[in-house]
Design goal:
The complex is a heterodimer. Chain A is α/β, with parallel strands linked by helices. Chain A is built from 16 helices and 14 strands. Chain B is an alpha/beta fold. Chain B has helices at 3-13, 30-42, 62-73, 78-89, 102-108, 110-120, 136-144, 159-168, 189-200, 216-223, 233-241, 248-260; strands at 18-24, 47-51, 96-100, 124-127, 148-149, 151-153, 173-176, 207-210, 228-231. The chains are: A alpha/beta, B alpha/beta. The structure holds pyridoxal-5'-phosphate.
């Protein structure tokens, strides 16, 4: 595969830097600082130290025996990102960006959040490095992910409620970008997924690529080979890119990105931008978008707040276009079933986001031979979703 | 030279400064937008910036965000705005700039947009989220159609970048007076004067200043250092406050006359 993105952040037609002029100098400064840090061994060392000593990496690659037996097909492994400090893969990225912010001398950070996992992971590193922190969160998400709102506040962050649109992740990102336009001189914007203007998609992907690198080593230790399939849920796409990236040149490894079908792909209430959207420009990059015929962005919907986003990272758009990865969908109902299934079969309560990946693996595993291997990225734990699940019961 | 260039020349000859008025198309309706535009021309507006509403206006403050939402609710589309311009062109020669975000244009089709806009009588386009790095995909078509591509310069824009922007700018240069989204802070005249001084050393292009100007006092101060001023959120707010009044056009026109006074 070509080494992408190009110098302007393009993955073929996708990606780029569609940003207001006020932000352009900051994006260029960020790119320069990131390129420098990437080449600096002391940055890698520092990052590695925090991942190990603070976040608890490496995370286990767990063989889900009871789940495998119950489905009766391929062997299923779970990459336990839920066991990271703060309970999801989001800390992999926020540690990287906060270390970069520190190098750049920025003492204030902001972030958008949907499920609150990225908000918590940002508030956490802000506390760790003594930075001032503001988190933008849609009012609907504040309601349905209340435990995470408390966590952010306990960590000393200010949670700014966002009322526009459907009061979910897209609106939180709009508001964070507006705030950043006004505070760009001293504030670092920690974007939580592989979206946004260049260099965010590539930077976040690289910070998350530890997931795939680790699991490759781990599976080679236990099974002496690559897995046959990788499955990860796709909101903006950071846990999926992190899972896929180390395998991009291993053509025999199938990659499945699972988008949220919400109430069903035959309704308008879903968040499947690749499976149900068209190419467009939002939040600084060109990608697949849920939009109407006039280019107005449509509201996304998913029971999983972290997937409730009408766009998707541009590198996923590219992987979909080239066919290197396959994008599929899972409904709310299927995700809720998978949530219960994993909880009861393995004693692991998955995040509703991750439950989409579990649900897809449950669809394909039974038809696969017993010597085949599926690795699912279990991107986060589900404590935060208890309220939502109780409401559906 | 197009209508925009000619307008700045004629104003310059009279030692007048341009008053550029922004309004969101379709707020409260396209019919009223038309009525307002025709009234504004008679009240001293020199150039019009017609906002094409977008669902996610990330460079706009609360006033224009809300106006965009209202305009979308009443069904305003890019095609509707282009039709409006064609309609106005039958009655007026006022220079018109379409102001907005890239996605509606991209969805319409960049080539079709450039051709239709030119035919409708649009003079320039200003696309907030299309910096020089990404502009070529639209400019191939808008340049070919003879439309001005209005470039933005921000207080954060540094020296080398400024030169790149100036190299390809057409029509006039839009200097963003505040480090922030539209209508959210008052500009500081001394800072702006210093920045404009730097830009003038590099270009002869007319410079308009906007994003935070809301009253005649500011218009006077900034008009003294720039070639034009843009007033937006304040007008949009006034339109909304008087949306149900029979005197809406008169109220807005009176306000604009007052802003124009110190610029003459
Ligand atoms: C546990 C978990 N998984 C997945 C996601 C989706 O994000 P991404 O696609 O960037 O991994 C989120 C987002 O909030 C999350 O909290």
């Amino acid at each position: 595969m070509k080494n992408l993105p190009d110098q302007y952040g393009h993955f073929d037609i996708f990606g780029g830097r569609y940003a207001a002029e006020t932000l352009m100098p900051a994006l260029l400064e960020l790119e320069e600082a990131y390129d420098k840090a990437k080449k600096d061994k002391s940055f890698a060392k520092e990052f590695d130290w925090y991942r190990r000593e603070y976040a608890g990496r490496p995370t286990p690659l767990y063989f889900a025996r009871r789940m495998t037996n119950a489905l009766g097909g391929a062997k299923i492994y779970l990459k336990r990102e839920d066991l990271n400090h703060t309970g999801s893969h989001k800390i992999n990225n926020t540690l990287g960006q906060a270390l970069l912010a520190r190098r750049m001398g920025k003492k204030k950070v902001i972030a958008e959040t949907g499920a609150g996992q990225h908000g918590v992971a940002t508030a956490t590193v802000a506390a760790l490095f003594g930075m001032e922190c503001k988190i933008f969160m849609g009012e609907e998400d504040i309601r349905r992910q209340e435990p995470n709102v408390f966590r952010m506040k306990i960590l000393g962050a200010e949670v700014v409620p966002v009322k526009s649109g459907t009061s979910t992740l897209k609106d939180a990102m709009n508001e964070a970008m507006r705030y950043w336009v006004g505070s760009v001189r001293d504030t670092f914007y920690i974007i939580g997924t592989t979206a946004g203007p260049h260099p965010y998609p590539v930077m976040v992907r690289n910070f998350q690529s530890v997931i795939g690198l680790e699991l490759k080593k781990q599976i080679h230790k236990t099974e002496s080979r690559n897995p046959d399939a990788l499955v990860a849920c796709v909101g903006g796409g950071s846990n999926a890119m992190g899972t896929f990236y180390a395998f991009r040149n291993d053509k025999k490894v199938a990659m499945f990105g699972v988008e949220a079908a919400g109430h069903g792909m035959n309704t308008k209430e879903h968040s499947a931008s690749i499976s149900g959207g068209k190419v467009g420009v939002l939040h600084g990059n060109k990608t697949y978008l849920l939009q109407d015929e006039h280019g107005q962005v449509r509201d996304a919907y998913s029971i999983a707040a972290g997937l409730d986003y009408p766009g998707v990272g541009p590198e996923h758009a590219y992987l979909a276009q080239t066919g290197r990865a396959t994008y599929v969908t899972v409904t709310d109902a299927e995700a809720v079933d998978a949530f219960s299934f994993l909880s009861r079969k393995e004693g692991i309560i998955p995040a509703l986001e991750s439950s989409h990946a579990i649900a897809y693996a449950m669809k394909i595993a039974p038809a696969m031979k017993k010597n085949k291997i599926i690795v699912i990225c279990l991107s986060g734990r589900g404590d935060k979703d208890a309220q939502t699940i109780i409401e559906t019961m | 030279m197009g209508r925009i260039g000619r307008k700045f020349e004629s104003l310059h000859a009279k030692n007048e400064k341009a008053l550029i008025v922004y309004l969101t198309a379709g707020d409260p309706s396209l019919a009223i937008t038309k009525q307002l535009i025709l009234g504004l021309e008679k009240s001293g507006a020199d150039i019009l910036e017609i906002g094409v509403p977008f669902s996610d206006p990330t460079a706009d403050g609360p006033v224009i965000q809300a106006a965009s939402q209202r305009a979308l609710k009443t069904g305003t589309t890019l095609q509707g705005v282009l039709n409006l311009v064609a309609d106005i062109r039958r009655m007026s020669e006022i220079p018109i700039v379409l102001f907005g975000y890239f996605n509606p244009i991209f969805a319409y089709g960049v080539e079709k947009f450039a051709k239709t806009a030119e035919k409708a009588g649009v003079d320039g386009v200003l696309v907030v989220d299309l910096p020089p790095e990404e502009a070529p995909e639209l400019r191939i078509h808008t340049d070919a159609a003879g439309l001005d591509f209005i470039s933005l310069v921000a207080p954060t824009t540094g020296g080398d970048r400024l030169k790149t922007i100036l190299k390809d700018a057409t029509g006039f240069l839009y200097y963003i007076s505040i480090t922030g989204v539209t209508g959210t802070a008052a500009p500081k005249t001394a800072d702006i004067a210093r920045e404009i001084g730097k830009i003038r050393k590099l270009t002869k292009m007319p410079i308009a200043v906007g994003f935070g100007i809301s009253n005649a006092e500011q218009a006077k101060e900034i008009g003294a250092i720039a070639d034009g001023i843009v007033i937006g959120s304040a007008v949009v707010k006034l339109i909304n406050e008087n949306r149900n009044s029979d005197d809406l056009t008169e109220i807005v026109c009176k306000y604009i006359k007052n802003i124009k006074k110190p610029l003459v």
